[in-house]
């Protein structure tokens, strides 16, 4: 391999000093000497070595007496070179050596590797013949293909394979006659002598070529242009040397041998030590015109200058950065040392460890042993870690969490049932079931002496107070309250935490909760448990199971914390709108308390005693400033807020109170404005004026008193002072008068603010026009229309089943169904059609209505999907009503699944349905007999005023709906719709 090696490496290989040559007689002009010495001045004599060898001046006729010896050579006579000046005629045919990376310039060393044994043998042999010269020629790049494809040693291997003609074709024509200075194994040191040009190939293996020895074109040493160009080359080199220490070594050696300093040599030197690429160097080598060669070199060194400038700026920027950082580091260290010395602060780690120890010390007794062990281990680990390492911050955060948790700390629980009852009643009206359950819980706790963790699930439509009762329960039990919603939660890590190894890892919600509340027995409200997400990483429902299950949660393992925590004392209260949506294993572990929604009466109480009160306080209105009549509240509930919960009602009450607040403020402002315009002087302002006037005057007179030396003048002054003081007291009296008046004005103002009255006549001014509610679209249902009762996640609701005749004709009996009904409900309609047909056949055997009528059954609110079997009896009644042309009894609603034989099966949501029926002003409800118990369990106020019938056969419904005496009355009122 042909390689330019570093000077130090070269020196290692060839420790002998470089030869000192006899100065060439013709070489040095005085100017060049001066320039060279200036270069020399710039270089440090550090004993470095370069590739440059000040050998014979190329082209000159003098014979160098140099002998290049390595230390080994000097000891071994056999390998010593007997120096001979290579006369051109002796070397017309030379061995051609390929150079891969750069051409060899006359006067320079170059180590190369010769792999071909034949070539090596030939070189050895030529040394033995005492004709140790060969031709060194730069290899051309590969003509085709991308030579860069073969990188490094592969490319070199390829080159070594070149032989004979192929090698000959790849060689540049112009090369250098090279002295074989030494051979070590396959490494050969060449010293460049003079330029050669290949004329023809003589033999192929090893490649021998015929050459012409080239001489530089004659030039005038005193030519100004040549001088100027060389001067520029030297001064550029000088500049480069200032910035680049890399070059100094080369130049130092060069300037040592100043005797050989010629213009052509200067050009070669510049090109050889520049970082120019091989082709540019080859161009310099091929140039025989000294001026042109100098120009080419100048270009190269100029470029080098630019590079070294960039290098300098890069180095400077990096140095600045590093020194800045080092400075900061040193200052910080010093600061730390000073603080430590002064006892102001222990170092970070000690301070941190101290902080954590301080935190855990009071809890040590109650803290479980396994946790203490982990804490101690982590504290020891923290001391060993580097403060800037990421592991350190992970450990610090971990310890922060571990020590902040309330290990074994419990809030004193309230086992006083009466007090708890009082608190629960204070916050919520009704909700007897929930309150009872909580009181039972407290009673058990009292008897056991300790409370146990339980899971209560409050289910019901939105706005019935599930969340707020949770808060109230915590207050009643004297437990800390923490709420988190799991609606849409899809990541298990939210519950169980992330593993500590992740960046930004956090513990799960329960650990956060414990840290937040600071006690191990809080009440945790898990909101919207029915809306738990599907989970993309694990199943959140299963994670919740571990959290809630009393069997498992005594040893709940959070991934982040990695030590078990005891959650068995936590009271979990979950809320849900629809029980069915809660995963079964979870539901299994809960005690479900259903909150069905409120009837008007309950809403009245809630509005009057709770919502109004809190809203009034929130708006800063005094009770005497406002009156909302019962009629207005009733109208608000019945016409605006008919849903099961009271959130909408709360919003409306807030709206009313906001408007009242605005009215009061406006009224107040008008009164203010009137009083101000009547009284032109503001009392506060008058007081300020008075102060300034009095003080200034007195000060002025005082100064007069001191200065005045004449007794007459003094007497005058006293008089004036007296006058002024009289003025002041009259002013003061006047101002006090004004202030008094304005006080009185203020009193009148408050009196003038009228009380705002809200009754049903002006209710619309506060909340706008009543919203249209579709649940009571008929005052009296016409023929073919019957009211049913439904249950939804929003609570119970009433719905109509409408049937109408499309067309009649022999054998056209069919049923069309619409209203976004599900499969079950569609089947119910078909069953109802069959039953109605059979009943009609029984009641009116001659009536062919169903056989010949195309009917259409519709369930309004077509945009709402509906399903379920409980409308079966309503559908049957609707079909019969149409067939018999009889409307059903007024204010009747029914619900119940009907079988093909007319049996009535039980339904769900009795309470919700009853409440919905009451809301819609229904007087009679028909329920399946199997639901009698559900109805009996309802609070009396819910059942109040309802005429309820329990049936197990459809014929009972038929009698109730189409009772004859009723029919007579109604028939008169409602004309037949068909
Ligand atoms: N029985 C009640 N007595 C007094 N205030 C009540 C009662 N029921 C509900 N409220 C009030 O109604 C508002 C709405 O209640 P809350 O937010 O608890 O409803 P929710 O059932 O949790 O609804 P969601 O299912 O939408 O979360 C609260 O301000 C609450 O105080």
UniProtKB/TrEMBL annotation:
<dbReference type="InterPro" id="IPR027417">
    <property type="entry name" value="P-loop_NTPase"/>
</dbReference>
<comment type="function">
    <text>ATP-dependent serine protease that mediates the selective degradation of misfolded, unassembled or oxidatively damaged polypeptides as well as certain short-lived regulatory proteins in the mitochondrial matrix. May also have a chaperone function in the assembly of inner membrane protein complexes. Participates in the regulation of mitochondrial gene expression and in the maintenance of the integrity of the mitochondrial genome. Binds to mitochondrial DNA in a site-specific manner.</text>
</comment>
<feature type="compositionally biased region" description="Basic and acidic residues">
    <location>
        <begin position="59"/>
        <end position="75"/>
    </location>
</feature>
<keyword id="KW-0378">Hydrolase</keyword>
<keyword id="KW-0496">Mitochondrion</keyword>
<keyword id="KW-0645">Protease</keyword>
<dbReference type="InterPro" id="IPR003959">
    <property type="entry name" value="ATPase_AAA_core"/>
</dbReference>
<keyword id="KW-0720">Serine protease</keyword>
<dbReference type="GO" id="GO:0007005">
    <property type="term" value="P:mitochondrion organization"/>
</dbReference>
<dbReference type="GO" id="GO:0004252">
    <property type="term" value="F:serine-type endopeptidase activity"/>
</dbReference>
<dbReference type="GO" id="GO:0051131">
    <property type="term" value="P:chaperone-mediated protein complex assembly"/>
</dbReference>
<dbReference type="GO" id="GO:0006515">
    <property type="term" value="P:protein quality control for misfolded or incompletely synthesized proteins"/>
</dbReference>
<dbReference type="InterPro" id="IPR014721">
    <property type="entry name" value="Ribsml_uS5_D2-typ_fold_subgr"/>
</dbReference>
<feature type="active site">
    <location>
        <position position="913"/>
    </location>
</feature>
<dbReference type="InterPro" id="IPR004815">
    <property type="entry name" value="Lon_bac/euk-typ"/>
</dbReference>
<dbReference type="InterPro" id="IPR008269">
    <property type="entry name" value="Lon_proteolytic"/>
</dbReference>
<dbReference type="Pfam" id="PF22667">
    <property type="entry name" value="Lon_lid"/>
</dbReference>
<dbReference type="Pfam" id="PF02190">
    <property type="entry name" value="LON_substr_bdg"/>
</dbReference>
<feature type="region of interest" description="Disordered">
    <location>
        <begin position="671"/>
        <end position="690"/>
    </location>
</feature>
<feature type="compositionally biased region" description="Polar residues">
    <location>
        <begin position="671"/>
        <end position="680"/>
    </location>
</feature>
<dbReference type="GO" id="GO:0004176">
    <property type="term" value="F:ATP-dependent peptidase activity"/>
</dbReference>
<dbReference type="InterPro" id="IPR054594">
    <property type="entry name" value="Lon_lid"/>
</dbReference>
<dbReference type="InterPro" id="IPR027503">
    <property type="entry name" value="Lonm_euk"/>
</dbReference>
<dbReference type="InterPro" id="IPR008268">
    <property type="entry name" value="Peptidase_S16_AS"/>
</dbReference>
<comment type="similarity">
    <text>Belongs to the peptidase S16 family.</text>
</comment>
<feature type="region of interest" description="Disordered">
    <location>
        <begin position="53"/>
        <end position="75"/>
    </location>
</feature>
<dbReference type="GO" id="GO:0016887">
    <property type="term" value="F:ATP hydrolysis activity"/>
</dbReference>
<dbReference type="GO" id="GO:0005759">
    <property type="term" value="C:mitochondrial matrix"/>
</dbReference>
<keyword id="KW-0067">ATP-binding</keyword>
<keyword id="KW-0238">DNA-binding</keyword>
<dbReference type="Pfam" id="PF05362">
    <property type="entry name" value="Lon_C"/>
</dbReference>
<dbReference type="InterPro" id="IPR003593">
    <property type="entry name" value="AAA+_ATPase"/>
</dbReference>
<dbReference type="InterPro" id="IPR027065">
    <property type="entry name" value="Lon_Prtase"/>
</dbReference>
<protein>
    <recommendedName>
        <fullName>Lon protease homolog, mitochondrial</fullName>
        <ecNumber>3.4.21.53</ecNumber>
    </recommendedName>
</protein>
<dbReference type="GO" id="GO:0005524">
    <property type="term" value="F:ATP binding"/>
</dbReference>
<dbReference type="GO" id="GO:0034599">
    <property type="term" value="P:cellular response to oxidative stress"/>
</dbReference>
<feature type="domain" description="Lon N-terminal">
    <location>
        <begin position="94"/>
        <end position="305"/>
    </location>
</feature>
<dbReference type="InterPro" id="IPR020568">
    <property type="entry name" value="Ribosomal_Su5_D2-typ_SF"/>
</dbReference>
<comment type="subunit">
    <text>Homohexamer or homoheptamer. Organized in a ring with a central cavity.</text>
</comment>
<dbReference type="InterPro" id="IPR015947">
    <property type="entry name" value="PUA-like_sf"/>
</dbReference>
<dbReference type="InterPro" id="IPR003111">
    <property type="entry name" value="Lon_prtase_N"/>
</dbReference>
<dbReference type="InterPro" id="IPR046336">
    <property type="entry name" value="Lon_prtase_N_sf"/>
</dbReference>
């Amino acid at each position: 391999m042909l390689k330019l090696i570093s000077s130090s490496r070269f020196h290692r290989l060839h420790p002998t000093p470089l030869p000192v040559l006899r100065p060439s007689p013709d070489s040095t002009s005085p100017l060049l000497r001066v320039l060279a010495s200036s270069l020399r001045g710039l270089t440090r004599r550090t004993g470095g070595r370069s590739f440059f060898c000040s050998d014979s001046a190329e082209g000159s006729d003098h014979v160098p007496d140099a002998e290049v010896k390595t230390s080994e050579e000097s000891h071994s006579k056999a390998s010593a070179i007997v120096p001979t000046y290579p006369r051109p005629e002796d070397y017309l045919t030379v061995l051609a050596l390929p150079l891969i990376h750069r051409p060899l310039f006359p006067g320079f060393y170059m180590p190369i590797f010769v792999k071909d044994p034949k070539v090596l043998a030939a070189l050895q042999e030529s040394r033995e013949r005492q004709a140790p010269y060969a031709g060194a020629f730069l290899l051309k790049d590969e003509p085709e293909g991308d030579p860069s494809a073969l990188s490094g040693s592969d490319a070199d291997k390829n080159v070594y394979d070149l032989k004979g003609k192929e090698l000959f074709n790849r060689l540049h024509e112009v090369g250098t006659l090279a002295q074989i200075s030494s051979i070590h194994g396959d490494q050969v040191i060449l010293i460049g002598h003079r330029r050669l040009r290949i004329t023809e190939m003589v033999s192929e293996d090893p490649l021998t070529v015929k050459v012409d020895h080239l001489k530089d074109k004659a030039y005038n040493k005193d030519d100004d242009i040549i001088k100027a160009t060389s001067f520029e080359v030297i001064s550029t080199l000088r500049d480069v040397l200032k910035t680049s220490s890399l070059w100094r070594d080369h130049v130092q050696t060069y300037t040592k041998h100043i005797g050989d300093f010629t213009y052509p040599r200067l050009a070669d030197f510049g090109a050889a030590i520049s970082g120019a690429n091989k082709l540019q160097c080859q161009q310099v080598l091929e140039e025989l015109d000294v001026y042109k060669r100098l120009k080419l070199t100048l270009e190269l060194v100029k470029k080098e200058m630019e590079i070294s400038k960039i290098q300098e700026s890069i180095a400077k920027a990096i140095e600045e950065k590093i020194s800045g950082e080092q400075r900061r580091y040193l200052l910080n260290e010093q600061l730390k040392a000073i603080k430590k010395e002064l006892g102001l602060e222990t170092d970070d780690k000690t301070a941190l460890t101290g902080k954590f120890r301080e935190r855990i010390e009071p809890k040590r007794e109650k803290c479980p042993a396994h946790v203490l062990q982990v804490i101690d281990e982590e504290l020891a680990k923290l001391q060993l870690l580097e403060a800037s390492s990421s592991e350190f911050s992970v450990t610090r955060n971990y310890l922060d969490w571990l020590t902040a948790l309330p290990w074994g700390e419990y809030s004193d629980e309230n086992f006083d049932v009466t007090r708890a009852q009082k608190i629960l009643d204070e916050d919520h009206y009704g909700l007897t079931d929930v309150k009872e359950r909580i009181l039972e819980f407290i009673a058990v706790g009292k008897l056991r002496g300790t409370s146990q963790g339980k899971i209560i699930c409050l289910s019901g439509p939105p706005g019935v107070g599930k969340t707020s009762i949770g808060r109230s329960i915590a207050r009643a039990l004297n437990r800390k309250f923490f709420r988190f919603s799991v609606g849409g939660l899809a990541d298990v890590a939210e519950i169980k935490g992330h593993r500590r190894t992740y960046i930004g890892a956090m513990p799960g919600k329960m650990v956060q909760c414990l840290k937040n509340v600071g006690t191990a027995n809080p009440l945790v409200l898990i909101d919207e448990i029915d809306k738990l997400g599907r989970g993309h990483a694990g199943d959140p429902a299963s994670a919740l199971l571990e959290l809630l299950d009393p069997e498992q949660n005594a040893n709940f393992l959070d991934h982040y914390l990695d030590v078990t925590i005891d959650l068995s004392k936590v009271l979990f209260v979950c809320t849900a709108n629809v029980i069915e949506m809660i995963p079964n294993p979870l539901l299994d572990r809960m005690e479900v308390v259903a909150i069905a929604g409120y009837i008007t009466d309950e809403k009245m109480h809630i509005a009057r005693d709770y919502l109004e009160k809190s809203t009034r306080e929130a708006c800063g209105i005094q009770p005497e400033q406002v009156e909302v009549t019962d009629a207005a509240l009733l109208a608000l509930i019945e016409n605006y807020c008919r849903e099961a919960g009271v959130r909408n009602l709360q919003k409306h009450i807030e709206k009313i109170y906001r408007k009242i607040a605005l009215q009061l403020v406006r009224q107040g402002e008008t009164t203010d404005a009137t009083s101000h315009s009547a009284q032109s002087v503001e009392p506060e302002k008058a007081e300020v004026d008075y102060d300034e006037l009095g003080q200034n005057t007195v000060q002025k007179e005082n100064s007069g008193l001191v200065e005045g030396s004449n007794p007459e003048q003094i007497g005058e002054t006293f008089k004036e002072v007296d006058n002024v003081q009289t003025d002041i007291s009259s002013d003061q009296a006047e101002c006090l008068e004004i202030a008094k008046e304005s006080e009185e004005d203020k009193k009148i103002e408050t009196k003038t603010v009228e009380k705002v009255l809200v009754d049903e006549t002006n209710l619309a001014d506060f909340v706008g026009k009543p919203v249209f509610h579709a649940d009571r679209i008929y005052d009296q249902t016409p023929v073919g229309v019957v009211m049913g009762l439904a249950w939804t996640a929003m609570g119970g609701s009433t719905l109509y089943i409408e049937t109408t005749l499309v067309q009649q004709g022999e054998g056209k009996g069919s049923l069309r169904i619409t209203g976004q009904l599900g499969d079950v409900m569609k089947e119910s309609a078909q069953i109802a059609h069959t039953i109605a047909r059979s009943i009609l056949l029984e009641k009116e055997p001659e009536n062919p209505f169903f056989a010949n009528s195309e009917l259409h059954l519709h369930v309004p609110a077509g945009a709402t999907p509906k399903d379920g079997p409980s409308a079966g009896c309503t559908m049957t009644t609707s079909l019969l009503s149409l067939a018999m042309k009889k409307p059903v009894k007024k204010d009747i609603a029914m619900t119940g699944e009907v079988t093909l034989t007319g049996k009535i099966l039980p339904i769900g949501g009795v309470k919700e349905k009853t409440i919905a029926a009451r809301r819609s002003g229904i007087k009679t409800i028909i329920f399946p007999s199997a639901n009698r118990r559900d109805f009996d369990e309802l609070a009396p106020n819910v059942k109040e005023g309802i005429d309820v019938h329990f049936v197990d056969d459809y014929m009972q419904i038929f009698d109730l709906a189409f009772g004859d005496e009723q029919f007579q009355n109604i028939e008169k009122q409602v004309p037949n719709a068909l």
